[in-house]
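Private note to self, pasted from the team thread so I don't lose it. Backbone tokens:
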């Protein structure tokens, strides 16, 4: 009996390896895993260099340069007549304003409570969007799942919780219920953004560069619109000192000038440009994965970066002052998340007619 089972397992592995093909979706997933891990570390280094100006960096600088980084390739595609505007125009300005509004509201609600919550709690709460996106996709997009998909989602959440066990054991984690509820509410517009993106990307063969350019433009405008709310929620900012604060932020970011106690602006521009470059690639990969696969698949693969970045962040040369040692829980979570990703990716999600929604054509 044991030999029969071993032979069955051997045959399954052999058949799986023989049938494996390096399709576009598979390549996108591998690239995403590589770039998002680097993206996280660069973001940490940038935020550390701009730690006194996080409101300006998040609401204005990041969407502004995101727009520039997306616009340049879009303009090149336009000049070379590689933009199919007939197809692109099927995605309306209303669609992109809606996506930008969801993303902007998600960022606002997630940013305001940051001074009052621990990173551990926020990191765990962030992953709640995985089952919510799966549920919303089931309801609004007609997605249908195999038992392996539910198992993959469960194992992903379990792996994330395991990776944070040492943080709960070594630190006094305090919960501020009011701020926690505000932070949790950010998941709702975040979920809506994922579902809306998948709906339009599946319906229209739109240029992801062109679409991202417009979304960044509207995000920048929405960021300015939400600035008064962000200022009111700040401990230190007022409407009277905000102009000086913005001036100091720009000097820190672009000139490396320290204007206030605690500033560490010398390399702010370097980290900012590197982060924007890698972040641009990661965002394009996100759109391509949602277009060829699904938002749920994107979230699951992106979650794999958690233990990887924990390992990379153990090196002071990479993470700077945010470096911390890797734990056994990180390695266990890494294995668990790999298993979860393979389990989820083994079967394609289906539409209401039982047709697979993923496209993993050969490169």
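Design output:
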């Amino acid at each position: 009996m044991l030999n029969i089972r071993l032979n069955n397992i051997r045959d399954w592995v052999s058949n799986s390896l023989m049938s494996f093909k390096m399709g576009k979706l598979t390549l996108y997933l591998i690239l995403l895993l590589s770039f998002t891990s680097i993206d996280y570390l660069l973001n940490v280094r940038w935020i550390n260099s701009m730690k006194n100006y996080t409101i300006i960096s998040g609401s204005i600088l990041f969407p502004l340069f995101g727009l520039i980084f997306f616009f340049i390739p879009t303009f090149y595609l336009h000049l070379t007549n590689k933009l199919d505007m007939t197809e692109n125009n099927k995605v309306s300005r209303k669609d992109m304003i809606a996506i930008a509004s969801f993303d902007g509201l998600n960022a606002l609600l997630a940013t305001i409570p940051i001074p009052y919550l621990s990173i551990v709690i926020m990191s765990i709460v962030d992953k709640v969007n995985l089952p919510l996106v799966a549920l919303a996709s089931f309801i609004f997009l007609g997605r249908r799942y195999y038992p392996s998909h539910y198992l993959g989602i469960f194992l992903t959440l379990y792996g994330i919780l395991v990776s944070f066990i040492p943080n709960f054991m070594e630190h006094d984690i305090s919960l501020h219920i009011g701020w926690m509820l505000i932070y949790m509410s950010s998941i709702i517009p975040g979920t809506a953004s994922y579902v809306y993106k998948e709906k339009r990307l599946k319906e229209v063969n739109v240029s992801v560069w062109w679409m991202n350019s417009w979304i960044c433009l509207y995000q920048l405008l929405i960021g300015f619109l939400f600035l008064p709310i962000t200022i009111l929620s700040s401990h230190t900012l007022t409407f009277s000192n905000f102009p000086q604060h913005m001036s100091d932020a720009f000097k820190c970011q672009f000139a490396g000038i320290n204007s206030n106690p605690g500033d560490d602006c010398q390399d702010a521009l370097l980290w900012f440009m590197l982060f924007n470059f890698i972040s641009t690639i990661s965002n394009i990969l996100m759109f391509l994965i949602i277009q060829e696969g699904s938002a749920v698949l994107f979230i699951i693969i992106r979650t794999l970066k958690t233990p990887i970045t924990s390992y990379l962040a153990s090196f002071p040369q990479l993470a700077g002052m945010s470096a911390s040692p890797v734990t056994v829980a990180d390695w266990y979570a890494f294995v668990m998340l790999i298993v979860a990703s393979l389990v989820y990716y083994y079967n394609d999600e289906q539409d209401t007619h039982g047709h697979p929604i993923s496209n993993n054509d050969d490169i």
